[in-house]
Amino acid sequence: MENLIVIANLGRVRPVKFKPAGDDPLEEAHLLEDPGSTVEMRPQSIHQAVTDSAGRFPQGGPADRLTGMSYGEEHHLEAELKTQALERVAAKIGEIVACAGYPKWRLVIPQEIMPALLKALTPAAHKALGGVVAGDLTKIPLADLEKRFLHESAA
Fold first, then answer.
1. First vs last Cα of the chain: how many Å apart?
2. Which string of DSSP letters, residue by residue, matches 108-134?
3. ∠ Cα 35 38 44 (to 5°)
4. Could you tell me where the DSSP H helices lie in the chain?
5. Is 60 inside any structural domain?
6. Beta bridge partners of 108
7. Please, are residues 56 and 70 in contact by the beta-carbon 8 Å criterion?
8. How many domains does the chain have?
9. Which residues does 148 contact at the CB level (< 8 Å), separation at least 6?
10. Smaller CB count within 10 Å for the chain: N or C?
11. Helix, strand or coil, per DSSP, at residue 137
12. Stated pTM of the model
């Protein structure tokens, strides 16, 4: 079992630590989450990034004829905002793994952003990565995470 599980999506990074069972026979392995360790990183929306209304430009036709007007384009603004959000999440994950001393860790991330996020991770964080699980589990209660990850490793 990895010592650290980082659960993330484009707007949230949630580190969870694994605590193995101790010498006490009643003590069981469990997951710990530090209060305030979850980081909210909401991606910026297009309406926040664009400060005014779209520009209007002439829409072709002969120079001496009045023609309709077209609205300006966003020029891949949504894709750029997603890329920036991925970079922020990857940087935060790298920071969390570095602060923990680069233990063996597991990443839980939605399938649609997995390839891009794995590419954006720092080389040191990527080297310590023990496994990747597809899914958005950022809002799952800790007890359900324990059922999923602790019982999965015991089976």
1. 12
2. EE-GGGHHHHHHHS-HHHHHHEEEEEE
3. 145
4. 46-49, 77-99, 114-120, 123-128, 142-154
5. no
6. 7, 133
7. yes
8. 1
9. 137, 140
10. C
11. coil
12. 0.76
d(CA 150, CA 29): 8
Which whole-number Å values give the CA distances from 64 to 55, 61, 67, in the listed order? 22, 8, 9
Q: Give the range of the structural domain holding residue 8, as residue numbers without chain letter.
A: 4-45+76-154
Tens of pLDDT, residue by residue over 2-55, are: 789 999 998 899 999 988 877 766 678 888 888 778 888 765 566 665 555 555
70 part of a folded domain: no
What is the CATH number for 22?
Answer: 3.30.420
Residues 150, 31: Cα–Cα separation, whole Å = 8
Per-residue pLDDT of 112-128, as tens digits, reads 999 999 999 999 999 99
